Amino acid sequence: MGLLLVAASSSAAEQEFNSDRPGVADGSEAVGAGRVQIETGLLREFRKAGDDPRRETLFPTLLRIGLADDWEARLESDIYSWMRQSDGARAEAWAPFSLGFKYHFLEAQGARPSLGVIARLAPPSGSNSLRTRRTTGDVRLAADWELTPQWSLNPNIGLGFDEDDEGRRFSTRLFATTLAYRPVPRLELAFDIAAQKPEAHGGRSAVVSAASAAYMLGRDLQIDFALGARSAGTTAARRLLAAGFSARF
Q1: Domain 36-248 class in CATH
Q2: Which site among 89, 133, 186, 249 is 20 to 30 Å from 34 CA-CA?
C-alpha cells in the first residue's frame, strides 16, 4: 500500500515517497532511479498448532532498488522466525526469500489510475519448519486511484504458484485492496483486505482483513502500525499485530 505525499524538493524530478507498508496491497509506483528504500518491521502472528495456541514473531523486510524512474528490483523476506506454543515449546527458523521487480507503466491522469506490474520468484530457501522445497512465485497488477484529495483506492490482482505445508505446489489467484483516508497530509489511515484462492492444494480460500496507520516523520521516513484478523480459511494467522518503518536513501 503506498502512502503518496508530494516531497518538498527543489527538484521537479523528485519522486513522491511511496511505501508498500503497512497495507496488504502493494502500490504501483517505483522508488525512482538511483534510490534505495528499505521497508521493515516486527510482525507478531497468533496461530493454532493442533490444540495449542502458537505465537510467531517475524521481521518482514522489503528492499527496493531503483534501476530507472519506472523500474525497481525487489528483495523480500520475513528474515527470521521465533515460534512459541502455550506448552512452552519453542522453535526458530530462517524464513524463505524472493527476488522480483516492479515496473510502473502508466501514470495517473484524471479518472485513470496509475498502473504497475509486480513479479517475484522464490527459490527453495529457509530452514527447519519454514524451509520451502519448490520454487514459487507470482505476478500482480497494482493500481492506485486518487478518488478525492483525501481518499484513495489501491487494488492488486494476480496469479501465482505456491507451496502448501505438505510440499505440494499449486496454482492460486490473488487479490488485495487498500482503502485509504488522509485526514491530514502526513497521516494515512487505511482498511485492507486480502484473499488467496485456493490457500493450499485442494483447499479453500484464505481471507485476511486489517486496519493500519502510517505517519510521515520526514520526506524520506515513514512509521506504521497495523492489526488484522483472519476472516476465512485456515492457513493465515488468526490475528496479527505489526509495527515498522520505511526509509528512502
Answers
A1: mainly beta
A2: 186
